[in-house]
Amino acid sequence: MNFCFANRAWAETELVEYDGKVEHIFTHELVFDTAKAFSPKNSVRDCFDKDHLTAKEFRALLVELYKNDYVLVSLDASLSGAVKVPHGKKPLVMSFDDMTYDTVNRGCIDKIIISDGKICDYTKNAQPQVSRERENITILESFIEQHPDFSPFGARATLCVNGYNGILGYRCTPDSKASEQKQAEETTECKKLVAELKALGYSFASHTYYHKYFNSCSASMIENDCIAWQKYIEPIVGNTRVLCYPAGEHKAKSAKNDIFKRYGFDVFLCVGNFSGTDYERASTDAKYLYRLPFDGTALRLYQKSYAHLADTRAIYDDTRFRPFSYKGGYYK
Prior knowledge:
alpha/beta; three-stranded antiparallel beta sheet; 31% helix
């Protein structure tokens, strides 16, 4: 595989083949306004606390990863079987899940936009409305600008998007309940954003259209989900072979999973510190990759097992409404 350095300062650096495990981590949308997100008045505050990082935590996570000598590589590079990195560095694949922004004015951003030629986050009910410090994409872009050696090959994250309420904050699907004119306008704008993100090095994956959990889905529901993705989201993000299971829930050896394969998916993103079942490891028609979540639960419970990546106690945002408790467990 040919590697092209995005940063010229690294052009003369020795590349070595990495023979260890290529780590893959993921986050959901970030919480930037913790007073709103963790307020008792917010009906989804438990979800935010368990399944999300705050913007402050994500910034701290990037600092930890950088300090521990990780560099970003693309998902495609990790699939090549021969990952090379600058001497002394370790490869890291990153992905972001959901990216729908359907919890408006609850402490998350409203959408990703292009402003003055840069990728920014937009929030109507906050000042400033436009920033580059409230969401994972924009924080990552700012960090790479300051530390270009964190992404020596120009790699970014894989964006695992849904479709039921549009993507990236754009209400571009019928299920988003926007008017046809609004859908058309939002689709045009979203396509411009997607093109810009791809140019920066981001790739796209299906997180399924409806974000329904695998075990509760019938075969016909999975078929309809694939049809909706193909009809409404694929024209915006392009073709992808990567499918990210909601909550990681799946059964690889099943007729239901074969439906995904019929629609062209052969790289499946799962969840957990696991190398896969015997069936998954032996599979010749698909790859099953397990990812480590970074969220409120992981920060509390996985301090020891995540220590090679980051010090979760150092990352933890004390403005959360539950205290940090590694030994005590999440709900204590």
